[in-house]
Amino acid sequence: MNNDQAKDRATDAFVTHRNLLFTVAYEMLGSAADAEDALQETWLRWAEVDLEQVRDQRAYLVRIATRQALDRLRTISRRRESYVGPWLPEPLLTAPDVAQDMELAESVSMAVMLVLETLSPTERAVFVLREVFDLGYDEIATSVDKTPAAVRQIAHRARRHVDARRPREVVSQSKMQAALELFTQALEGGDLQGLLDVLAPEVVYLGDGGGVKHAALRPIVGADRVARLLIGGLGRNQTPITFGTTMVNGSPALAVHSDRQLDGIMAARVEGGRITGLYFVRNPEKLSHAESETPLTRR
Fold first, then answer.
1. Average pLDDT of each block of 10 consecutive residues along the chain (299 residues)?
2. Strands across the sheet containing 274-281
3. Which residues of 144-181 are buried (b: 16+ CB within 10 A; e: fewer)?
């Protein structure tokens, strides 16, 4: 095989599995921009591999992508400690097929992605590879430089940690949509009682402006405080605000426009028919993947 043929084979394999590799990197990093950087590094290393020595190209690529994402996660974890205000995952506009894969949709939801942020880098990698992509312990071990026995223990610890913090029920798309419609109607009408009816008493609101856009610098807790914050914010805005339904990270969400320009994405966590979490991303650097679909896959 000459060099051109080898390069073509490497390119074909990378393109075939690119969406899978992006999904792995995004679930580990919570940032599309960082995931793209990890994929670029993955390609550079893959292009140097002797494909004649590779038995399973998919597994080999996932291993490279995992290692690149892990290296980047360790770096950005320190950077996020100095982030202005709450840090939220970068929202991705997703196709309907993501929502149809319930396990994938749950794993990339804002609520679960925030839980993954509380894991160590290695715990997060192990959890994502095992619970989302169903990789075996031996295969994961080669990706994170641990023994299979150690990976098994890490997976058990990470699963217990996530299960204690993730939403207690899997909410259907229709119930999520219904809660968001009630929320939008109340917010657009300045209906304080309507908001209190759809917000759970212990609702938590997180706003991410990244120090660029105005946003609450700390979590806002409680239905009354959150409702008054939202209505007050609309009242102070000098330009027309509109809300439109979109699909973000596999779930219904709100695209918030100010003077016809995308101002932010608001995702929600719904339990028992009421909103228990609101996540409003306004940082402009995180909105580039909110207007064109990003393909995600577990295959």
1. 74 95 97 96 95 92 97 88 92 90 91 95 96 95 96 97 90 93 95 97 97 93 96 78 93 93 96 96 94 88
2. 220-221, 199-208, 274-281, 261-271, 251-258, 241-248
3. bebeeeebbebbeebeebbeeebbeeebebeebebbbe
